[in-house]
Amino acid sequence: MVIYKPTVSHSPIRDIVEWFTEPERVGYHYLALVLKCLVSPFVLFGFRVLVKAVLDAVFGELGPSPAHVGGAVATWSANLVKELCPVPRLHDVTGMFGQHYEATSVALRMLGARVGKRVYWPGTGPSIGDYHLLDVGNDVVFGSWAHLVTSDGTGSEMVTIGDRAMIADRACLLPGVEVGERVTMGSGALTQSGKQYLAGGTYVGSRGGDSVCLSTGRQPHKKVTSGSKRMRHQSSDDTLAAHSGSRNKSADNDGMGILLENGPLLRPKLICYLLLLVLPDPLCVLYWNVASISSVQFADFVIKRFLPSDLGIWYDVSVLFSLHFAAIAIFTTSQAVLVLAMVIGAKWALLGRRRPGNYDWDNRHIASVGRYSSRSRRSVASVTRAKGVLGLLTGTNWIVLYFRAMGANIGKDCALFANGMPSLVFTEPDLITLGDRVVVADASVVTHINTRGKFDLNGLEIGDMCSGQAADSSAVRR
C-alpha cells in the first residue's frame, strides 16, 4: 500500500489526498479496521496469558498471603497481570462469543481463576481484584457491577463462591469471604472480610460492616431428573440441577435449562449464533468510519473538479479542511439518525411491545430473541467513542423522543440523564412510565428480575416531580 509515495509537485496537499483516496488504499484501510476489531483482542489476550505464564515460571504461582509476607515481586506480578488484562479488555474477547457464557469462564481460567461450569456472567463487570484468587463453583449467577475484592491493606485472600450461589447487582465480596452453596447475595450486599456465609442464606445491603441476613437456609431440594426430560419450574431454584458429587457424563448434563437441548428456546445453528455475535462489531466499525473516509473522498472530488491547481498550498489546505469539516458533519449526523431508526425498527420487528410476565430463558422465544436485539442495540448505538449516540442527547428532549419511540410512557418536561451518559440506560423502556417533570440521573431503572435462569418482567412507574437515583423492578414512586 505504501510502496509508491505521492509524486513531487507544486501542490503536495492535493497529491497526498489523491494518493490516499485511491480505491485500493481505502480498501486496505477498511481491512485494517476489521482486523483490529476481530484479531487484535485475541493477540493482546494471548500476550497477557504468555506474560502470566512467564511470571509463574520465573517467580512461581501466586497465592494468598499477608501484606508483610508477599514481597515486592509478588505485588508487582499481580498488579502487572491485572493492569495488562482489566475486565473491560477481557470483555473485548469474550463479547464475541457471548460474554454471559462459557467463553468468559474459559478466559478467566487461562488467567489463573478457578471457575466451574455453567456460570452466568453479566454484561457489565464484575470487577475482579486478582484473577488467581478467585474460586467460583458450578451454576453461579453474577449480577451487573458486582465487586470481587481479593486484596486490601492487610493482604491478599481467596474469594470463594459455592455452587448455585447468586451474586446480585452491586454486591461486594471482600478478601477471604466464603460464600456457601445456594447463597443469595442480594443487591448492594457488602460482606465482611474473612467471613463464611452458610449454605442457603440470603443477604442484602450493609449494616455495621456486614450484610443483613434475611434467611439462614432452605430445605434440601429434590434431585432434578435426567436432562433428557423437559425441565419445568415454578421457582428460580428449579432451573438448576441438584448438587451431586458425581463426575460422570450424566452429572455433567445436569444444569440450567438454557444449556439443555430439549426446550422450545430459539436456538440457531452454531455458525449462525457466532455470526450474530461476531459480525456486529466489525460492521459497526466500518459503518462509523464511512463518514471520515467519504468526506475526504468528497473533498478530493470537489477540489479536482472545480478548483484550479495553481492557487497555492494555503488555499488548498483551507478549502480541503472546510469541505472535509462540512462533509463529515453532514455524513455523521445522517448516520446517527439512521442508526437510531435502525435500532428502533429492530426493537419493534424482533420484540414488539413487551408485557409484564415470566419469560424464562429455557422456554420462551422472546428471551432468546431479546439477547440478539440487545446485542445489536449495544453494538450499533453505543459505538461512537465513549459516549455513544445517546450520550450526545442526554438531558435533551431528543432522548425523551427516542425512548418514547422505544415504547416508554414519558410525561412532560422530563430530564433524562442530564448529568451525562449513565452507567445503564433503560433496559426495557416499554415497561416504564414516567410522570411530568421527572428527573432521572445515573439511575438503574430496571424492570426485569433475572434470578438463576428465572426471568421476569414487571412494570415500573415513577410519579410526577420525582428525582430518581436508583429504581428496581416493580417500584412505584409518587
UniProtKB/TrEMBL annotation:
Keywords: Membrane, Transmembrane, Transmembrane helix. InterPro entries: Trimer_LpxA-like_sf. It comes from the Eukaryota. The chain crosses the membrane at residues 28-51, 270-293, 313-346. Residues 214-249 are annotated as: Disordered. The keyword Membrane applies. Residues 219-233 have a biased composition (Basic residues). The keyword Transmembrane applies. This is Uncharacterized protein.
